[in-house]
Design brief:
- By secondary structure, the protein is an all-alpha fold.
- It has 14 helices and no strands.
Amino acid sequence: MSALAPMSLQIFVPALPAIQAHFAVAPGTAQLALSLSILANAVAALSYGPLSDRFGRRPVVLAGLAMFIAGSVLCALAPSIGVLIVGRVVQAGGGAAGMVIARAIVRDLFERERAASMIAYLTMAMVVAPMLSPSVGALLLDLFDWQAIFIALTVVGLLLVWGTQQRLRETRAGGAGGAGWTDLLAGTAALMRSRAFIAYVLQSAFAIAVFFAFVAGAPYYMIDVLHRPATEYGLWFIVVSFGFMAGNLATARLTRRIGIDRMVLAGSWLVLLGIVLAAGLALGGLWTPAALFGPMMLATFGNGLAIPNAQAGAISVDPLLAGTASGLSGFTQMLVAALVSQAVGMLQNGTPYPMLGFMVGCAAISLFGFVLPRRLAGLTPAGRPGSHG
């Protein structure tokens, strides 16, 4: 469920040129099938949390999966680019359900520190899916046609519906008879007033934006500036992904012993250290793949420590509003990531500096966005009120 949204966003990217040629449209028009689906994913993330808090996790997940399947079928049968774009929006809106509600389900089932360990595994799924999806999409495109990608996604959606009906019990106690909409709006407002919640959301959103700034700029830097083949970029990217997965594995094993907030703080410092090191090497004239990807591996290891714990912390501020908290944090993450990646893409100038500048800025905001609100709230690194609070 967690992997569905990132997988569906990435799997059809290799088919964009074929889709553009098939419908005889401009590249910018075909690109709308990607950009609008990202926006739909972010907006839908806002709604699924409150809906699952109100009606329960299971029915909302099933509704989202049904929406995903309908969008996938519409894409596969699309007679025009307009219908395809609409199908992509519907598909992305449905896929967001699993990404948001899976975290809320984990919080329903596990206490705070244990939830962080489980979310680490969910986060790994969300990383591995976009890593492998473009290759799968390219294979389907080569063997069949671009419609095969959406047929495959339809099958995946149907399998998830079957698995959900068979294995997923309702985890939101009293979900169907829970609070009304007025109470949910009041709960959302309460979350937005919580300094602890704001701290967790700022940390995770800008930590993820570090990675998206890298993804937006690194291929251009490697291929167009350093004149390295795309395959070499792919091999170096495995190093970065390995760092993130290693951080997630460390989170799964260490969080219950060390604590959520200390893990977030340690990871945030590692991210900033890695990015500052990469920027320093670039400013010193060392423009090589190792000088970028080596420090980035350290940064992604830090992200693997920080992000799952920050997500677990955000949905633990008020366990009764775990779904709402997950939706708000998911929306913020997607929105910030989209804005940062678009900005990096627009500012490419033949150097790594736009990419590194945004990465340093996002890493700093991630760290201090976590520390400062908590200091103002009088919270210690262990998440408890300090003596001055």
